[in-house]
Amino acid sequence: MSRIVIVGTKTRMEDAINAFYSEKAIHVIDHTTGDDELSIGSPVKGTSKASERLLKVRAMEKELGIKKKTKTADIAVEDVQKRISSGDVESVEDEVLRAVDARNDLTQKITELNSKKKTFETLKKLPLTLDFYSGYRSLAVLVGTTASDAASVKIDDAEIFSSFDKKEGGVVAVFVKAARKAEAVEALNACGFIEMTVPEYTEPVSADEVYQKMESELSEAVEALEAENKALEALKIKYMSFLKGSDEELSIAVEKGSVPLRIAVSKYAYVMDAWVPTKKVDSIKANLEQKLGDDIYVEFQETRGRKLEDSENAEPRFSNVPTKQNNGALVREFEYATSMVDVPRYQEIDPTFLIAIFLPLFFGYMIGDIGYSIPFIIIGAYGLKYAKNKDWRSIGLVLFFGGIWGAIFGLFYYGEMLGMHFVGGEYNAAGVWEWYHESAAHGGTGITWDWILGVTFPEWFYEILPNVAHGEGVGKLEDVGFLLKMSVYIGIVHLLIGQLVGLYNMLIQRGVKFAFIHKGGLIFSFLGMIFLCYALTDFMFNKASLGEGITFVCMILAIVLLVAGVAINTKAEGAMHAIMAIPEFIGQILSYSRLAAIAMSKAGMALAFNYIIFKMIMPSHTVDGLVYLDYSSGIAMVVIAIVMFAFLHLVVWTLGILSAGLHALRLQYVELMMRFFDGGGKRFAPLREKRVKTFFSRKTSTTKEV
Amino acid sequence: MVVESGVADITSGLIAIGAGFAVGLAGIGAGMAEKDIGAAAVGAITEDSSLFGKAMIFTVLPETIVIFGLVVAVMAMFVL
Fold first, then answer.
1. Would you say residue B8 lies in a domain?
2. Nearest CA in chain A to B56
3. Beta bridge partner(s), residue A300
4. Which helix (H) or strand (E) holds A237?
5. Chain B residue closest in CA terms to A483
6. Which CATH number does A125-205 carry?
7. Per the domain annotation, does B74 fall within a domain?
8. Which end of chain B is more exposed for a tag (fewer CB within 10 A), N or C?
9. A:B CB pairs within 8 Å
10. Closest approach of B7 to chain A, Cα-based (Å)
11. Which of B57, B71, B74 sits opposite A670 (nearest CB)?
């Protein structure tokens, strides 16, 4: 990154801002008011109008239910600009508001009608016309609902009409002498009386008649509301594209208009500090000068190195350099995984490329089954092609590449499909095919594809599979020792890469001596611990003598490296830390045994399911002491077996995504990145227009920037 | 269980029990450690979803305990 300072005349600031935006590589350093006579600028003319319009557009979008995800047709920038400047936002707002108001009125009317309707529905149960309820001088009328039956209520000098229904509750109308009203209320309260107001009527209309009228009014209102909603929907469809386009266009206008708030201005000029990629300094300078002539002056200030010292000595405003992650098209997709932890600092290596290599690799290693991998590849490819959301894309990415690794490991390493090996036997010395002892053919648990399909795979296929215990490939449940050993080796390599990257980071940040003391010591101890463990395991499990051969060499190497490592590390972090770091290495390396563990756990589930299906459900018969599947007898059983097979393997497959995916990610985040990654960087965010819904039609895109 | 000259050999059974305990108890331990971190992590992510990566790192830290249990179990099953 290089720092430049741009000075220009205020009169042409708007053109200048447009020119900055078209470079797409200028990261503005916010101006902080200091003792230099400069203050921050004020928004470009027209910005407040634009933000007012933006507010209107957003309000309309909300009213019409246009969401971020709503799909709309793209719209040309010139179209939008023309329509906005001709006052379309306001006229559309009028139209939309009128419809929205009408809808709101109707909704309110319906609520009111509903509550009134309820009153008359209750009064319907009493044998009185509505004129009875009002117009008395010396009588008080109490009308309301009751929770229990009011027929038993006795009030002196009163006439009581009541009705009760167990489900709907009761209703009561009491006509009592005005003086005795309080008494009556008290008596009614005993049965849960809630008073309601009855509208005044002078003609003898029955409650039922009014109720019918209300109902017809209500249905009319509902119809009108429906029509209004339809009208709103039509408005939405009509203006959707324009609204989304103008939302975007106005947002850009507001953003552009607010740029002066981030830079320093004097009476006639502005001064802007900015970070730009070093490669682009010259072209930016040339372009700006070409567009604005004498009204702009660009000066190169410095190119910031990767040494931490440089940043520490810089002015606080300029100490934090933005990070521009510079990865290829493929690796860039994995940047999301890195950013979930943090943005890398300017001075450190971007771990994305390591994640891009190891995340799918570990995922595939743990899945290690061609049967599960193919759906992963298909779903992943589909996700990568169609998904826009970052989360889905990153899942698709891991599934796709992880699936490819899974297929490779499944075919050439484990020799497995859906938890079953391809090959379940071998040719003996006489050239006769013999099933392995634990094969299903002998009644064992080793269900294999050649046994299921009743075929023998060609010899070349048999030969490409690795031979650990048998020739069928690495058995996830049979060759546990081998898998664990492999995981530890993978772990050592992975961790060593992490340590070396850490060393390199220190090297570019602080120089050779510092790096050697701070990371070199750790690497020595790490290697020493590995040799020590190798020697010790050889001694303990293989009963090798510690005093001779390779074990002896390893032991000596281990002691030398450990002593040197701890000594160097003591200088950096103190004796306590240096010694504590050593057992931690074991924990870190053993953490990789999850690679074997996850593979085993899924293989275990698959084994159980396959056993249920092929040994317990599928019919079989025995010939010459060998068990064979019998597809012809009992078609029902075969169908059940196939359905269960599909369902149960779907379970294993789904669990595979979760466990393998999360653990592969964890190994990157915790084991790898903790070795070297600091994070806390600031993302390089150059001035640029983010257009999704709007586009420049060709004619203007060439002239616009001038 | 192998019965030889009237004496039952329960070694392999004991090994299996031991291996089960190793994984099971380690799992309980890791679970207890993870539950608090997990709750706090979910809370933090609700506040600010960009914390997912960091939250996940902390949440899965205790998992290593289970791996130790697993290693012990595997050693018990295959090495002893």
1. no
2. A666
3. A4
4. helix A207-257
5. B74
6. 3.30.70
7. yes
8. N
9. 50
10. 27
11. B57
Q: Which residues of A touch B50 (CB under 8 A)?
A: 339-340
Could you tell me the residue ranges of all domains in chain A? 125-205
Task: Report the C-alpha dihedral over residues A612, A618, A621, A626, rounded to 10 degrees.
Answer: -50
- Contact (CB, 8 A) for A468 and A479: yes
- Give the structural domain span for B51: 26-80
In a domain? residue B10: no
Cβ-proximal residues to A235 (8 Å cutoff; 6+ apart), any chain: A64, A95, A96, A99
Q: How far apart are CA A578 and CA A529, in angstroms?
A: 13
Q: Tokens in use for B76?
A: 């018990």
Task: Report residue A181's pLDDT band, with 50, 70 and 90 as the boundaries.
Answer: confident
Which residues 6+ apart lie within 8 Å of A601 measured at CB?
A: A659
* Rounded-to-integer distance, Cα A436 and Cα A458, Å: 17
C-alpha span between A397 and A383 (Å, rounded): 8
- How many helices (H) and strands (E) in chain B? 3, 2
Prediction ipTM score: 0.74
What is the rounded CA–CA span in Å between residue A354 and residue A340? 15
B78 inside domain: yes
How many structural domains are present in chain B?
Answer: 1
Q: Closest Cα to residue A252, out of A18, A10, A79? A: A18
Query: Which of A345, A276, A320 has its CA nearest to residue A28?
Result: A276
Return the percentage of chain A with pLDDT > 90, whole number.
32
What tens digit of pLDDT does each residue of A569-624 get? 898 888 888 888 888 898 899 889 899 989 988 898 898 899 888 888 888 888 88
Please compute the mean of the pLDDT values over residues A277-287 and round it to a whole number.
Answer: 91
Tokens of A297: 């002056």
Distance from CA of B30 to the nearest CA of A (A): 14
